[in-house]
Amino acid sequence: MALRHAVLAALLDGEYSGYQLTKIFDVGVSNFWYASPQQLYAELTRLEADGLVAGREVVQQGRPNKRVFTVTEAGMAELAAFAAAPPKPLLIRDDLAVRVHAVDRLDPAPVIAQLHERAEEAAAKLALFEKMLVRLRGDLDEETFLRQGERVGPYLTCLGGCRLEREVRDWCLRTARTLSERAAYTRRELP
Amino acid sequence: MALRHAVLAALLDGEYSGYQLTKIFDVGVSNFWYASPQQLYAELTRLEADGLVAGREVVQQGRPNKRVFTVTEAGMAELAAFAAAPPKPLLIRDDLAVRVHAVDRLDPAPVIAQLHERAEEAAAKLALFEKMLVRLRGDLDEETFLRQGERVGPYLTCLGGCRLEREVRDWCLRTARTLSERAAYTRRELP
DNA sequence: ATAGGCATGTAAGCAGTTACATGATTTA
DNA sequence: TAAATCATGTAACTGCTTACATGCCTAT
Question: Do B101 and A2 touch (CB under 8 A)?
Answer without folding.
Answer: no
